[in-house]
Amino acid sequence: MKEPIRILIADDDADFIAECLAVLLGDEGRLDIDSATTPRSCLAKVMNGHHDVIVLDISFSPGQTEGLDLIRDIRAASPDSDIIMLSSIDDSSVKLQAMESGANNYIVKGLTQDTNEIVLGIQSALAQKRGKKKVAVEGEILATSIGAVVGSAKMRHVFSLASIARRAKTQNVLITGPTGVGKDVVATAVSRTTERVPFIAVNCGAIPTTLIESELFGYVRGAFTNAVKDKAGYFEQADGGDIFLDEVATLSAQAQVVLLRVLQSGEFSRVGSTGVKKVKVRVIAATNEDLDDAVARGDFREDLLARLKGIPIECQFLGCGET
């Protein structure tokens, strides 16, 4: 049996809480609804148990903690809860303050006599929760399918992102993190490898700078010494599938230019040729360097980084087993 979705409604208006409960309890088999009428009781309930959604009034009785102050404590105690801030103040600056403090939604009450908008807000939050849970489950299934053991919350998050990236078949992916955390494992999880869809893995850091272009994009006979016949590069081999560029930060300035062209148009030329090749390839890149810093130093192209960072995945702790 599925666990009920827990909702906490914090408002000093008991009649309002009763009205919300009356509307929501029509689905009481699926919802576990609690209430609090003071900031203290609200925070105590948050500290004592997880709530999927917290509906919080912006102001309680005079002399009590305001909702905007309370929301920060709630967010610190329950970072995964969706917080809906209720207010009689229809002011964009107050709404912005609430959102910056940690609210996921801001609803003005008093503009209507019923609770429809609040109920819709709660239903929206629950729908997002269900979506996140589905992605998390898919992530664990994905990890299991490639033999990875998901042993921490951080790892579950990484594989949830990998699951999203796997479905987004045309979105480039940038995987970042220190050496040894398993970026190659994440890349394998992201790739949609089948017998009909190629997955080509390239360690850019292991290829001499003078050869990186010819290895990635191929060459024609006579392009350089020992080029005795035409050769297809890794991008041609990956046509229709994925190419994993590990240590992408080591690419030379010229290789970055060619790679940017491929990402923009799918076109490139083999070294020594004026002919144009066209491929359809999704790039999964990985690096242990901070590419924003590399851009600031002038070592990496900003426009290339923007193209690579379609779906960013940071896996700082994947190999560490931290929780």
Key features of this structure:
323 residues, 12 strands, elongated, five-stranded parallel beta sheet, alpha/beta
Strand percent estimate: 15-25%
Order of helices and strands: EHEHEHEHEHHEHEHHEHEEEHHE
Unreliable runs = none
Shape annotation: elongated
Helix content: 40-55%
| Major sheet description | 5 strands, parallel
Radius of gyration: 26 Å
Helical region count? Answer: 12
- The end-to-end distance, rounded to whole angstroms, is 27 Å
Beta-strand segment tally: 12
Mean pLDDT, to the nearest integer, reads: 81
Strand order of the largest sheet: 2-1-3-4-5
Secondary-structure content class: alpha/beta
Summarize the structure.
This protein is α/β, with parallel strands linked by helices. It is 41% helix and 17% strand.
Structure characterization notes:
This protein is α/β, with parallel strands linked by helices. The protein contains 12 helices and 12 strands. The protein has a 5-stranded parallel beta sheet with strand order 2-1-3-4-5, with helices on both faces. Strands 7-8-11-6-12 form a 5-stranded parallel beta sheet. A two-stranded antiparallel sheet has the order 9-10. The chain is elongated and about 85 Å long. The model has no long low-confidence stretch (mean pLDDT 81).
